[in-house]
From TrEMBL:
Residues bound to 5-phospho-alpha-D-ribose 1-diphosphate: 102-103, 106, 128-136
Oligomer and partners: Homodimer.
Domain Phosphoribosyltransferase: 64-167
The species this protein was found in: Halorubrum salipaludis
Binding residues for orotate: 132, 160
EC nos: 2.4.2.10
Family membership: Belongs to the purine/pyrimidine phosphoribosyltransferase family. PyrE subfamily.
Annotated catalysed reactions: orotidine 5'-phosphate + diphosphate = orotate + 5-phospho-alpha-D-ribose 1-diphosphate
Co-factor(s): Mg(2+)
UniProt pathway annotation: Pyrimidine metabolism; UMP biosynthesis via de novo pathway; UMP from orotate: step 1/2
Residue spans crossing the bilayer: none
Name used for this protein in its record: Orotate phosphoribosyltransferase
Free-text function comment from the UniProt entry: Catalyzes the transfer of a ribosyl phosphate group from 5-phosphoribose 1-diphosphate to orotate, leading to the formation of orotidine monophosphate (OMP).
């Protein structure tokens, strides 16, 4: 069943502006020199844990995700660790079940790479916080596909526009973002 998301009346532009303001208010957009997870450095960094632990920003992200997901009744998946709060809140808001894609399989107990219930052939949309190279998202999709899911869509909060869209396309995955780096940094870049 496809449920009506909240704030359906908001335009994408309104939602984007509100989200940028919330990320900035949470102090999640940092400037300086930062090392990134797949190598290289950057003069800015989105500290996902600052916006994910801020109730206003977390609520806005989950509402925006829910609005984007109104066109599908697919199961949701979150990429550990950062996307776990995002998928949990979005799933609760939408009344949808979800799974978690670990970076590596658990080394004891169940030995699971995918946590939660996943049935063979089930359609899954992956939620992620940040896409830089896109490798983390691709790894999660591959693990979900190996576990039997059908996955062709990844939804991220921020696409840093550093090749993720192209890498995902090579794996037959469409990348959608709530914000691009261009949108997020427009104010700084206009100065
Ligand atoms: O697109 P990529 O080049 O893969 O980079 C982005 C990934 O890196 C960050 O996660 P991080 O490795 O910091 O892990 P965490 O969620 O466990 O903190 C971010 O949350 C993405 O998952
Ligand atoms: O590529 C990364 O590692 C990365 C970039 C970023 O802006 N934020 C983050 O949490 N990780």
């Amino acid at each position: 069943m496809v449920t009506d998301p909240p704030c359906l009346g908001m335009t994408d532009d309104e939602r984007r502006s509100e989200l940028i303001a919330a990320l900035r208010a949470a102090d999640a957009v940092r400037f300086g020199e930062f090392e990134l997870s797949h190598g290289g450095t950057s003069d800015y960094y989105v500290d996902k844990y600052l916006f994910e632990t801020d109730p206003d920003a977390l609520r806005l992200v989950s509402e925006a995700f829910a609005a984007r997901l109104a066109d599908t009744d697919a199961k949701l998946a979150g990429v550990a660790l950062g996307a776990v709060p995002l998928v949990a809140v979005t799933a609760a808001e939408m009344g949808r079940p979800y799974v978690i894609a670990r970076k590596q399989a658990k080394e004891y107990g169940t030995g699971n790479r995918i946590e939660g219930r996943l049935d063979e052939g089930e359609e899954v949309v992956v939620l992620e916080d940040i896409a830089t190279t896109g490798q983390s998202a691709v790894d999660a999709v591959e693990a979900l596909r190996e576990a039997g899911a059908t996955v062709n869509r990844v939804l991220v909060v921020v696409d840093r526009e550093e090749g993720a869209e192209e890498l995902l396309a090579e794996h037959d995955i469409e990348l959608e973002s709530l914000l691009t780096a261009t949108e997020l940094l427009a104010e700084r870049d206009a100065e």
